[in-house]
């Protein structure tokens, strides 16, 4: 039977958001972004397995936070190395891979299922996309405008991105590509990439303002879970009642709190 694995590269230092911890461990509603993202993957009906790549120093903590049903591996030097290591740790029977960004913490489970379903239906590579609301200009290195692409044809790309396993493995074997996402590598192979409609809630938490927006969205969901997007109720921790969250710090009960 076809199995679907979701891999989450979360092994970057990612300190730009502030707070003194890697971005994936920044708190949203009292829980790390990574925990929210993994809970959404767990709620998706088509995801069978989840593998997370964490920084070497955080592997044990991530495993504790995420519980025994999630495999946590040590990441590599670059994002693509972390993805490759996570994919290698996936069960052999897996032939559909979703690559998800921990910073898209509030991604609806229905979107995750939509991407997986499109790959299961035969598409080799699938990305969720949304229309671009700003006019986008291409500039040269000095900032002078070179081109104004037709906005109606532009799309912003979200995650999870879904692939047939062999297509993604071939893409990860390519060297020296200057692309910013997994689908970009697959395009370089000449494989067709198709789109499904993305979702506003799947935005990437990148700036402090994004975190404020995510907090408000989470509070609204928790206040009226039946009116929120289906499958996006309050996050649960499978395990880890002994793990305490404080802004800027993560520690386990009994350990020194300095
Ligand atoms: O640092 P950057 O924004 O490129 O990271 C994008 C994503 O890739 C982040 O989720 C980060 O944790 C992950 N990453 C990784 N392994 C690395 C570098 C980044 O998993 N060596």
Q: What is the domain tally?
A: 1
Provide the CATH topology. Spore Coat Polysaccharide Biosynthesis Protein SpsA, Chain A
Number of helices: 7
The CATH class turns out to be: Alpha Beta
Helix/sheet category: alpha/beta
What are the low-pLDDT stretches, counting only 5+ consecutive residues below 50?
Answer: 233-242, 251-258
Instruction: Give the bound compounds.
Output: cytidine-5'-monophosphate
Query: What value does the average pLDDT take?
Result: 88
Order of helices and strands: EEEHEHEHEHEEEEEHHEHEE
Characterize the biggest β-sheet. 8 strands, mixed
The CATH architecture assignment turns out to be Alpha-Beta Complex
Rg calculated over all Cα atoms: 18 Å
The dominant shape is: globular
Percentage of residues in helical conformation = 25-40%
Oligomer: single chain
Tally of strands: 14
> Span between N and C termini?
49 Å
The CATH superfamily appears as Spore Coat Polysaccharide Biosynthesis Protein SpsA, Chain A
Q: Give the strand content.
A: 15-25%
Structure description:
There is one protein chain. The termini are far apart. The protein contains seven helices and 14 strands. Mean pLDDT is 88; it is low at 233-242 and 251-258. It has one domain: Spore Coat Polysaccharide Biosynthesis Protein SpsA, Chain A (Alpha-Beta Complex), CATH 3.90.550.10. By secondary structure, the chain is α/β, with parallel strands linked by helices. It has helices at 33-43, 59-66, 79-88, 109-120, 165-172, 182-188, 208-223, and strands at 3-9, 27-28, 31-32, 49-54, 70-74, 94-99, 125-131, 138-139, 145-147, 155-157, 161-164, 194-197, 243-246, 249-252. Helix 5 (165-172) crosses helix 6. Strands 1, 4, 5, 6, 7, 10, 11 and 12 form an eight-stranded mixed beta sheet that branches. It has a two-stranded antiparallel ribbon with strand order 2-3. Cytidine-5'-monophosphate binds at residues 9-12, 14, 24, 53, 75-79, 82, 101-103.
């Amino acid at each position: 039977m076809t199995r679907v694995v979701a891999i989450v590269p979360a092994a970057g230092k990612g300190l730009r958001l502030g707070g003194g911890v890697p971005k994936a461990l920044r708190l949203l509603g009292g829980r790390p972004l990574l925990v929210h993202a993994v809970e959404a993957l767990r709620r998706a009906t088509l995801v069978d397995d989840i593998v997370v790549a964490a920084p070497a120093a955080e592997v044990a903590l991530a495993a504790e936070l995420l519980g025994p049903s999630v495999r946590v591996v040590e990441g590599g030097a670059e994002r693509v190395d972390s993805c490759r290591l996570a994919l290698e740790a996936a069960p052999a029977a897996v032939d559909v891979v979703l690559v998800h960004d921990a910073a898209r913490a509030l991604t609806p489970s229905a979107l995750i299922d939509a991407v997986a379903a499109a790959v299961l239906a035969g598409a080799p590579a699938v990305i969720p996309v949304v229309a671009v609301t700003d006019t986008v200009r291409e500039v040269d290195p000095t900032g002078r405008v070179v081109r104004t692409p037709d906005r109606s044809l532009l799309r912003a790309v979200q995650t999870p991105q879904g692939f047939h396993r062999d297509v993604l493995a071939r893409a990860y074997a390519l060297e020296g590509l200057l692309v910013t996402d997994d689908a970009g590598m697959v395009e370089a192979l000449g494989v067709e990439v198709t789109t499904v409609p993305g979702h506003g809630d799947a935005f990437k938490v990148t700036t402090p303002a994004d975190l404020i927006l995510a907090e408000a969205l989470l509070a609204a969901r928790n206040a009226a879970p039946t009116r929120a997007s289906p499958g996006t109720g309050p996050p649960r921790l499978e395990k880890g009642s002994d793990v305490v969250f404080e802004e800027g710090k993560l520690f386990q009960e009994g350990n020194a709190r300095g």
